[in-house]
Amino acid sequence: MSKQLRKTGMGLAVAAAIGVCTGTQAAVTIYDQDDTEFSVDGYFNAFYVNRDDKVADVRNSDVKMGFLPNTIGFNFSKEMGGLTLGGRSSFWSTINDSLQSPTDTSIDVRQLYATVDGGFGQVLIGKDFGLYARSNIFLDELLMGFGSPGAATGVSFGNIRAGYPYPNPSAQMTYRTPDIGGFQFAGGILEPADTTPGASSEQSMPRFEAELTYSADLNGLMVTGWLNGRYQSSENATTEIDSQGIGYGLKAALAGLSVTASGFSSKGDVPVLISDAALASEEDASGYLVQASYTLGANRLVLSYGETDSDQGDFESENTSVAVFHDINSHLKLVAEYNLFEQVVKSTSMTAVDANTLALGAIVTF
């Protein structure tokens, strides 16, 4: 990765998945001269998916991408007058629409930002993932897996709405401190969501998000902890909605064993993602995710369980997964995952989703 990207920490979900947060590099440097660097990274995957939908009483076989879409990213950095100017643009594409759009596909740009690094830390301007719930998702042991059933388009949701919400890629201006004894703080202003649509709707202040992380090597015990949050307000002539949330977590790894526990608590939002959508009231939501993994040679076994309880979204969900990751080499990985997901409508106690999913996939990175 470029010098600029290494300083961004967990600013890149794919990079976090393939090991940037542990120091490995997975990019191809195209140009590196005169204090200027340009590199490209990629993530490609496909899964055979067999799902037993117990509510609809149907079983389907599909070929889909995993929780992370297929991605290609372009990175730039240049040293100028004691500063490092950087930038990243990443393109995320689905393979799930191959029969609906045979010669076309959906592409979205989740990252398009510039950075300025110096002794003071880093300033990021542009579009990037949010800070609230950021580490909750990027340190998910199943980030490179398949996960729970998601949208009607066939996109899997991983542990979104079964342990954590999604840190929406948003327009933002964010500051990150240097690493200070293992601690790093990030805080920023982001584009606020219109949760009270109407002619008189207003968001007089930006959305505020922040995250504090801590990483340390305690005589071979690798520890990472985090605390993040969000606040915003939207109002019209009759309604004011304050949306706020706190996320937290701890990950500890010793030798081949890793244990992760995270959670969140929010109010005034549906704990899937924040968007321009009307909310009639400020209801509560909470969730947690516990995971354990063990790595032996080229194999990594993951056990995962998560829950979310949302009054705002009127649902309770739980997600159980077991997965095995096998490294053929540093750029090719095989995955076998079995997932059990259930979601209940709180107001009626009716089961909305009850699905068991087997996913067998391959991942190529560079």
TrEMBL record:
Residues 1-26 form the signal peptide. The keyword Cell wall biogenesis/degradation does not apply. This is Porin. Residues 13-342 form the Porin domain. Coiled coil: none annotated. It is a multi-pass membrane protein. PANTHER family: OUTER MEMBRANE PORIN F-RELATED, PROTEIN YDDL-RELATED. It comes from the Bacteria. GO terms for cellular component: cell outer membrane. Keywords: Membrane, Signal. GO terms for molecular function: porin activity. The keyword Signal applies. Gene3D superfamilies: Porin. Its main location: membrane.
